[in-house]
Specification:
Oligomer: single chain
Strand order of the largest sheet: 1-3-2
Keywords: Coiled coil
Helix content: 55-70%
GO molecular function: DNA-binding transcription factor activity
Number of domains: 1
Shape: flat
Protein name: HTH arsR-type domain-containing protein
Number of strands: 3
Organism: Metallosphaera cuprina (strain Ar-4)
CATH class: Mainly Alpha
Largest sheet: 3 strands, antiparallel
Radius of gyration: 17 Å
Structural class: mainly alpha
CATH superfamily: Winged helix-like DNA-binding domain superfamily/Winged helix DNA-binding domain
Order of helices and strands: HEHHEEH
Distance between the termini: 44 Å
Number of helices: 4
CATH architecture: Orthogonal Bundle
Length: 103
């Protein structure tokens, strides 16, 4: 299953921070806390994150099933790679536009 770019962004944030609360995610993404909770709820439903009673969000990587663990890691990285590919393509297009203007 391919995650939306927004959900990929949230996974990247959590991966980089280790753990983060829902309010901080909302601030980083510039969305309401309610919207951030919806994103986190979806990631939790899909098994990517867990949320403590205090609202602390962490990545979930189960160690009991190594295949599932690797699959989740691959899904996260595939999402990151796809996002980077899109950004590279956008930069190429922007560079071509700048080159045309310079001629």
């Amino acid at each position: 299953m391919e995650l939306t770019p927004r959900l990929q962004d949230i996974l990247n944030i959590i991966k980089n921070k280790g753990e983060i609360n829902v309010q901080d995610i909302a601030l980083i993404l510039k969305v309401s806390p309610k919207t951030a909770k919806g994103y986190i709820r979806e990631l939790s439903r899909l098994g990517f994150v867990s949320v403590s009673e205090e609202g602390v969000v962490k990545l979930v990587i189960r160690t009991d099933d190594p295949i599932e663990k690797l699959t989740k890691i691959i899904e996260i990285h595939e999402g990151e790679i796809e996002m980077l590919r899109k950004q590279v393509e956008e930069l190429r297009q922007e560079l071509q536009k700048l080159k045309r203007k310079g001629k």
